[in-house]
Write a structure and sequence with these properties.
This protein has about 220 residues and is of the alpha+beta class. Helix content is about 50%, strand content about 15%. The two termini are about 25 Å apart. Bound molecules: adenosine-5'-triphosphate and magnesium ion (MG). Magnesium ion binds next to loops.
């Protein structure tokens, strides 16, 4: 049963993170001096909070811009969600709102680079936090054989609003043989856990590459 490593332990295993988040630490926490794992963990937690607020504000802003008023009902939030998906990624609206590089956006969640090698997935609306919680549960319940095909979950918010996973590389479908590699991954996942296979979306865009291996990066929703 794979464990949830936790952000602090992840930073300990990736000491380069101390350099990359070090520059922001004095500014964010009002401290100076060399960054420690503890400082870096606090700084990254603060960065996550800022990004979550940025997502909430963006939802409000796109709706306000289109309809001239703030979203008030549940239905308004869903409309705002679809407006966010229409934003052209190359214009950088999402990155400006959350202050982190964009890795990708799905129907329910946005993936950002919190630090090199570490992906932060924020549910665009609180309702979608259940997908992060499902992902955490599947990771915790996975056999070692199944875990080899899944992107590891590193940490999750107490309310499920965000989840941290290893960052994986994008799959280039134009490379010959890529389709067969994904088919092999699907066959392996199906033989290990047919129920999981039936309940997740095994489209190409939900796979990534980790150290050259094909892995499933989205196993939170169908
Ligand atoms: N660990 C990761 N590393 C790199 N990129 C990622 C990672 N997780 C997600 N992404 C990118 O972000 C996109 C959205 O993430 P994800 O598929 O988990 O969200 P979703 O809203 O559940 O998606 P869907 O629309 O498939 O339901 C992915 O298609 C992928 O491009
Ligand atoms: Mg997806």
């Amino acid at each position: 049963m794979p464990a949830i490593l936790g952000l602090e332990a992840w930073i300990e295993r990736h000491p380069g993170t101390l350099q990359t988040c070090g520059a922001d630490i004095p500014e964010i926490l009002g401290i100076s001096g060399p960054s420690s794992v503890d400082h870096c963990t606090r700084a990254l937690h603060e960065t996550i909070s800022v990004a979550v607020r940025g997502v909430d504000l963006l939802i409000e802003e796109v709706f306000l811009e289109r309809f001239g008023e703030r979203p008030r009902h549940h239905g308004d939030i869903f409309i705002a969600l679809s407006l966010i998906q229409e934003l052209p990624p190359e214009r950088g609206f999402i990155e400006a709102a959350v202050n982190l590089p964009l890795l990708g956006i799905g129907a329910w969640r946005v993936a950002l680079r919190l630090a090199p090698g570490l992906a932060l997935k924020i549910s665009l609306i609180p309702h979608a936090s259940q997908f992060n919680e499902t992902e955490e549960q599947i990771w915790k319940d996975a056999s070692p054989e199944l875990a080899r095909w899944l992107v590891p979950v590193i940490d999750i918010a107490h309310d499920g609003r965000w989840i941290l996973m290893n960052e994986v590389d994008r799959i280039d479908m134009s490379v010959a043989g890529t389709g067969q590699l994904i088919s092999c991954a699907i066959a392996a996942i199906e033989s290990l856990d047919p129920d999981l296979c039936a309940s997740v979306d095994l489209s190409d865009y939900n796979f990534g590459l980790s150290d050259g291996k094909v892995v499933l990066l989205d196993y939170g929703n169908d």
